[in-house]
Amino acid sequence: MTKKQSVLTPLVISALLLSFYYLLMPWHEMLLLDYRAVAQGAWWQPLSSQFMHHDQPHLWYNIAGLWMGWMLFPDQFRQNKDWWPVLPIVLAVSAGQYYLATPNVIYAGFSGTLYGLFAWAALKDSLLLPQSPKHWISVIVLTGILLKTILDFVLPGFAEGIAIYAHLSGVICGMLLVFLGCAHGKFNV
């Protein structure tokens, strides 16, 4: 008998995303990642910007993406402790967006972290479950994320308004975490 997949962590993350957007709206501008404000001491913005969104569709797409990842990768997100990559990916996404994007861009959103979580789960599934009947889903998702990330750089008009450096940083961090885990014997390939 297999253990049921925990719903607690995606519920908590969804609650955080909803709370930040709807309850902290009066401070919306202070919580977005504004490069000039961070340089002047707004140290919380790289983290708070991950949970803020520019508008409601942006918020709801990210919540849908979170739950889609939870459904697509039950082997990778089975228990609450399996969500440990969120923190390093959040930090990598904020750092990538802060250091690589142009300073006039105001950043908000969870999509870079989602890209990283999808890349982490899909690569881990691809490497660890090659005999699984669901293996092809992971390969397709990983290929799609990589192609989308590359297209965002190759066709800049296609990616207008998209935080391409946040997405790129998330993907790189997610994949790096899998390779580091394999190198240190955390995952058996």
From TrEMBL:
<keyword id="KW-0472">Membrane</keyword>
<feature type="transmembrane region" description="Helical">
    <location>
        <begin position="135"/>
        <end position="156"/>
    </location>
</feature>
<dbReference type="InterPro" id="IPR022764">
    <property type="entry name" value="Peptidase_S54_rhomboid_dom"/>
</dbReference>
<feature type="transmembrane region" description="Helical">
    <location>
        <begin position="106"/>
        <end position="123"/>
    </location>
</feature>
<keyword id="KW-0645">Protease</keyword>
<dbReference type="GO" id="GO:0016020">
    <property type="term" value="C:membrane"/>
</dbReference>
<dbReference type="InterPro" id="IPR035952">
    <property type="entry name" value="Rhomboid-like_sf"/>
</dbReference>
<feature type="transmembrane region" description="Helical">
    <location>
        <begin position="58"/>
        <end position="74"/>
    </location>
</feature>
<dbReference type="GO" id="GO:0004252">
    <property type="term" value="F:serine-type endopeptidase activity"/>
</dbReference>
<keyword id="KW-0812">Transmembrane</keyword>
<keyword id="KW-0378">Hydrolase</keyword>
<dbReference type="GO" id="GO:0006508">
    <property type="term" value="P:proteolysis"/>
</dbReference>
<feature type="domain" description="Peptidase S54 rhomboid">
    <location>
        <begin position="41"/>
        <end position="182"/>
    </location>
</feature>
<feature type="transmembrane region" description="Helical">
    <location>
        <begin position="7"/>
        <end position="24"/>
    </location>
</feature>
<comment type="similarity">
    <text>Belongs to the peptidase S54 family.</text>
</comment>
<keyword id="KW-1133">Transmembrane helix</keyword>
<feature type="transmembrane region" description="Helical">
    <location>
        <begin position="162"/>
        <end position="183"/>
    </location>
</feature>
<dbReference type="InterPro" id="IPR023826">
    <property type="entry name" value="Rhom-like_SP_proteobac"/>
</dbReference>
<feature type="transmembrane region" description="Helical">
    <location>
        <begin position="83"/>
        <end position="100"/>
    </location>
</feature>
<protein>
    <submittedName>
        <fullName>Rhombosortase</fullName>
    </submittedName>
</protein>
<dbReference type="Pfam" id="PF01694">
    <property type="entry name" value="Rhomboid"/>
</dbReference>
